[in-house]
Amino acid sequence: MEHYLDNAATTKTCEAAKNAALEIMDNIYGNPSSTHTKGRIAKDYLESCRKTVADTIGANTEEIIFTSCGTESDNFAILMGAELQKRKGKHIISSLAEHDAVRKSLDKLESMGYTVTRLKPDSTGSVPVSSVIDAITSETVLITLMMVNNETGAVTSIKEISEKAKEINPDILIHTDAVQGFLKVPFKAKTLGADMISISGHKIHAVKGIGALYVKKGIKIKPLIVGGEQERDLRAGTEPMPQIAAFAAACKQDPEIEKIKELKEYLISEIKEKLPQVKYLKTDAPHILNISLPGYKSEVLMNFLETKNIFVSKSSACKQGKRSHVLEAIGQTTDYIDGALRIGLSRFNTKEDIDALISGLTEALKLAHR
Predict the structure, then answer these.
(1) What positions carry a catalytic annotation?
(2) 314: pLDDT confidence band, cut at 50, 70 and 90?
(3) Which of 205, 220, 251 is the last residue of a domain?
């Protein structure tokens, strides 16, 4: 039996998403830009999917731009947001614990003459509101911070940061990478205060290759990808209708957050009772738990668990096995980082998965001790 516990990396595609994608491929396969009947049918379906995604985050339909993934959404928001604001200033605020999609976009901007302040997060990975506000200068034009840290599950208060930053300067753009927060930590675009929000399909049981960027009405960013006039001239390229349909279908499913919370609490209680030597980070996201077995190696533990059909990770999948910059940024010890594992839960997980993990870790520690 398989025990998949790496849902922060990606999720299993749900039946509703698969069926929606197949329906498009079989029956609604026209190009939404074509003016004949098949094209118009596809266009209507595209806009109905856009409305579903918009409704899910409390946005207007015209504020949603479909992208290929969360990484593209982050690149789009940061690079084009900075471009929009460059005449007002070239100072950007972010943190040391961001996803590489944000970090590398900021690296590119620095090479173009922008100044980036990368704030140190607290011991869980959350970025303190006060440190963000204190970092604002007369040159600050963009703040980009992750809503839920993808490695630790720490939640940063984007709403409070947005409110206080806008009080200082209403022209500051606020972007949040909400890929891990979407349908896990409730939020609505209208009350969150962010001008741009990145989300992704494959973290919520849709297929890979689809994401979206919320751009608040009135924010006039330029396209990142040019060519055709798709997505209101903001993202060229024929819309990937099967992926979009799957994304919208996944948005309609119950994320079962309470169930996921209970599984995380059960996992923590089992660790405390049966594996007291295991350390973990207490964070607010319901689906991510970062644990560590100091003195052991993450890679060895992962490989052993895989022999038991138990799948976890040690950091972001995009790191491809490299050392976690997030755990370094929050000041964790070398022993903790070297033995760290990330557990990612979803609505498809059960207590049996948790029991298998606890049993697998127990066995791994006994063998390693020998």
Answers:
(1) 318
(2) confident
(3) 251
